[in-house]
Amino acid sequence: MTRPREQNGVEPPRSEDDIQREQLGPRGVPDAPDPARMTPQREKKTPKHIDPGHTS
């Protein structure tokens, strides 16, 4: 028996990166906190309210 194929364009629930982060931690060190954070300049550039626009 073969396992059923996934449809094209359907993402798996977890990627390979997600699985590795669970096993090894965010920087390859198990149980270490993730040091990544937004820099002040990037935070200034990021829009606070995103206008969805109109549908026409």
Q: Return residue spans where pLDDT drops below 50 for at least 5 consecutive residues.
A: none
Instruction: Give the count of helical stretches.
Output: 2
Strand content: under 5%
- State Rg: 19 Å
Helix and strand succession?
HH
Can you summarize the main beta sheet? none
Question: Which helices and strands occur, and which strands form pairs?
Answer:
Blueprint: H1 16-24, H2 40-45
Folded structure, characterized:
By secondary structure, the chain is mainly alpha-helical. The protein is built from 2 helices and no strands. It has helices spanning 16-24, 40-45.
Short description:
By secondary structure, the protein is an all-alpha fold. The protein is built from two helices and no strands. It has helices at residues 16-24, 40-45.
For this entry, give a set of tags.
56 residues; mainly alpha; 2 helices; 27% helix; flat
